[in-house]
Structure formats: structure tokens, C-alpha cells
Design a protein that fits this description.
mainly alpha, two-stranded antiparallel ribbon, 14 helices, globular
């Protein structure tokens, strides 16, 4: 992400200052946890999309920084809550909040982050930003619940899969781009185009995550985590809909009843690769990437557009 980092290096440092200020608390325990979160932030991909989307329309301003902070606050809140729901003790190679401070505190911390984000927008009359991100929260919740509902009977419909990832994953990236654009663009059409751009990028991003579960020559050993959690992702959905009935029944049985057995999970992964599920998912991923780029190319050629193009390609080319 060299181009993107070069274009907005100064703005990213400024964003970090805004974010640290946004999470401050007068409660010692909360402030300690907030410092822990700040020090262990990830690649800051979503704030980068906010900043570059804004730069595409004009000069980055205080509203842009607040939008980037709101996105990061909401994203962090969802991760904290996800770790509680998934009973995960690690996040990005470190102990999760619930592992260090237990579930009750982790839930409260997630709520605190959410409230700080909402107040950041309300206190500055950033109503457009708040509307865009509130819609994302609603869609993320609906996507998560739809996934849980469909996991019970192992959904085999591709359109349901795309509805889930569009809501659960892509909606926040779509809102990141729209929120950034709304801070500099003066017309709703450009903001909506950036939202669409972010959504298509987010779908490609999630398919890439799904592919990591099966592994390729470039990624390393497959993990099979989605199979263990009975999640039907695109490679497996394609396979189940394109193999003979006997193999399909066997694969479904394994996912339902033997999803923790190493040899059984390996059998599923091997059959998905044989059936062309990996290649099918890759083609879909690149199709969404190209659709995102087609939307982006509707804007004039400039540094910000080049930076966004680099981020899009990163989502599909990344090794982890």
C-alpha cells in the first residue's frame, strides 16, 4: 500500500491523534483499555478508504477526520463484541479484551466505543455521516443474524451468501467510502457512487477471506476454520451445488457432525479444490474487484484515485 500511504501519510498521523482523543475516558479502567486498543490497531484499512475517498472530492478537513474516527470506533466496537460472541481469546496475535478483562467488561467497552462514535458525530452536527454509518450498523446486525439463521440448516443458495456478506462485511467499507466522500463532495450522486465502489470492494475482500480458509500455493496451509464453525462460504456452496448427490450428502454430514475432525475437514477442503470451488470463488472475487474499479474510473485520474485503486487491488492480492 505504498502509494496510498505516501499520499495520506500526514493525514493518517493526524487521524491517529483524532482517534486517540475520541476514545479518551475519565474512568481509569476504561482509559487503560482504550490505550490497549489504540496500541494494537490493525492496518487501518477503513480509515484509509475514508481519507482517500474524501481526497478524491477535495481537501481533507475536520469532518473527514471525524468520519474516519467514527468508522474506526464502530469497527472496533464490532470486533470487541464479536470476540465475546465467538469466545475468541485472541485478536491480531494479542489477547482479546474479553480474555484480559472478561465478557462483561468487553461488552461494556464495545457499547462505550459505539456511544463515543455516535456522540462524536452528534456533537459536531455531522448528521449525514451519522446517517451513513448508522445504516451500516443496522445492515451488519441483519447480516450477522441472517448468517446464524441460515447456518442451522446449511444454506446452499449463492444469493443468500452474497446478501449476508454484503450486509455483514461490505456495508462498513461502503459506508467508509460514502462518509469520506460526504465530507468533500457536494452532490449525492458522487457519494452514492463511492458507496457502491466500497460495497463491491468489500464483497471482494470477504471472498478473499473465505479463500484463506482453503489455502492456495501463495497462502500456505488451509485452516478449515469456517468448516469447523459450520459456515458455508462461496467455495463450499459452489461445490455442494455441483457434485453428485452421494458426495454432497457426505460433505454435508461432515460439516454438520465431523467438523472438528482434522481428517474430515481435510477431506472437505480437498473435494472443494477438486470440484473447482476455489477457482469459481476467485473468478467471482476478481469480477467484484473489476466492478469496483469500473466505478472508481468514473472519477478523474488523480493521486487519490490511484491510491484507492491500490487499496482495491490489495484486498484481492493480500497474503493474509
Amino acid at each position: 500500500m505504498e502509494i496510498a500511504n505516501r499520499i495520506i501519510s500526514k493525514e493518517l498521523k493526524e487521524f491517529e491523534t483524532h482517534f486517540r482523543q475520541a476514545v479518551k475516558s475519565n474512568v481509569p479502567l476504561l482509559d487503560k483499555i482504550m490505550q490497549f486498543i489504540v496500541k494494537r490497531k490493525g492496518k487501518q484499512l477503513r480509515p484509509m478508504f475514508v481519507l482517500l475517498s474524501a481526497k478524491l472530492g477535495g481537501e481533507i478537513n475536520h469532518q473527514t477526520y471525524r468520519a474516519a474516527s467514527l468508522v474506526e470506533l464502530l469497527h472496533t466496537a464490532t470486533l470487541v463484541h464479536d470476540d465475546v460472541v465467538d469466545e475468541s481469546l485472541e485478536r491480531r496475535g494479542f489477547f482479546s479484551i474479553n480474555a484480559l478483562w472478561k465478557n462483561k467488561i468487553a461488552v461494556i467497552v464495545g457499547d462505550y466505543l459505539l456511544s463515543k462514535g455516535l456522540l462524536l458525530s452528534l456533537d459536531n452536527n455531522d448528521f449525514k455521516t451519522l446517517q451513513i454509518l448508522s445504516t451500516a450498523i443496522k445492515l451488519m446486525s441483519e447480516g450477522e443474524l441472517l448468517q446464524l439463521e441460515k447456518a442451522r440448516n446449511l444454506n446452499l443458495e449463492e444469493d443468500i451468501y452474497f446478501e449476508i456478506i454484503k450486509n455483514k462485511t461490505a456495508s462498513l467499507l461502503a459506508s467508509s467510502c460514502a462518509a469520506g466522500a460526504s465530507s468533500t463532495f457536494n452532490n449525492d450522486d458522487s457519494i452514492e457512487r463511492m458507496r457502491t465502489f466500497g460495497e463491491k470492494t468489500g464483497i471482494a475482500f470477504q471472498i478473499k477471506d473465505d479463500l484463506f480458509d482453503y489455502g492456495t500455493a501463495n497462502i500456505g496451509k488451509p485452516t478449515g476454520n469456517d468448516i469447523k464453525e459450520k459456515k458455508l462460504t462461496l467455495p463450499l456452496i459452489y461445490t455442494l451445488n455441483n457434485v453428485n448427490p452421494a458426495l454432497r450428502r457426505k460433505l454435508i454430514y461432515i460439516v454438520k457432525n465431523e467438523n472438528t475432525k482434522k481428517d474430515s475437514v481435510k477431506f472437505v477442503i480437498d473435494e472443494v479444490q477438486k470440484a473447482g470451488g476455489i477457482e469459481y470463488a476467485r473468478k467471482k472475487m476478481f469480477a467484484y474487484r473489476d466492478e469496483a474499479l469500473a466505478v472508481l474510473y468514473q472519477f478523474p485520474d488523480c493521486e487519490a484515485r490511484n491510491g484507492l485503486e491500490e487499496l482495491v487491488r490489495y484486498t484481492t492480492d493480500r497474503k493474509y
